[in-house]
Amino acid sequence: MKMRKVVSVIGAGNVGEHTASLLALRGLVDVRMFDLPRRDGEKLIEPVKGKALDIQQMLSALNIDGKVEGFSVSPEGEGYEALEGSDIVVITAGFPRKPGMSREDLLDKNISILSVIAQKIKEYAPEAIVIVVTNPVDLMTYAVYKILGFEKSRVMGMAGVLDSARFKTFISKEIKISPMDVHAYVIGGHGDEMVPLISISNVGGIPLKDMLPREKIQELIKRTQFGGGEIVDLMGTSAYHAPAASIVEMVEAIVTDNKRILPCSVYLEGDVGKYYEAEGLCVGVPVKLGNCGVEEIIKIPMIEEERQMWKRSVESVRKNIAIVEELLNARNTL
What we know:
single chain; alpha/beta; Rossmann fold; L-2-Hydroxyisocaproate Dehydrogenase, Chain A, domain 2; 2 domains; 3-stranded antiparallel beta sheet; globular
């Protein structure tokens, strides 16, 4: 009988590798990693197998139980049989946006990649919960949800946990207090129009607006909204430590069934879709996570200023969802 949960991480670049490493260090789950090999002349290089072996040896050095395996796959979808038995699948695979590449080009390339992956998840892990990390995450979550055809409770995108962590970091540094006592929430699309909820953010129960002047709060909001870009400017590549930790937060909430309230990108419809004025979209809202995935979508109160920011964020996602629909329809007619 299988006792430990299995988490499969598809894509073993910086984010995927660090996610696998952190999950293994937690000792809660067994980890399977999937990525493409590459050729160096006649030699086949399989980094994913090397990374898995390295992490496994790290666990031995730290006397931590756990199993980490790496599997090479092809762009056409060969090699995914080891997805079988996965309880959670995390998708980090995809192209980063390159200079001169339009949003449509990026969407097209990543939908192409995630279409193959989603088909393999359907084939080998039809009962899994799926966490999408590939950017642009709200749009990729929507695409994966549509391709998979799973219940909406089992498909979600990682964004708000990371954005909220960034907001907490900046507040903590400004006030010089532990981030453990900072409760800050960011919802909306994972982009420049994300919505930090000042009205309910607090430090040790004291409203944030009572601890910092409005101008300083606005500075922190701007820094949060462009937090990913700041790291790219400094490192020359996108962040991976904080995104990986954010994924692990979500995975742990599901595996331990501890009913955490975390902001995730999920498909909105019905009553909650009307409340958020975002029916038929995937966008970041607070949800209760447990071992069934998204167990409840929370209707969070917003003051008028936040509601207006929210509407702009939703509209930005809605415009791009139309492009995703066109690309999905085009693929279906091929």
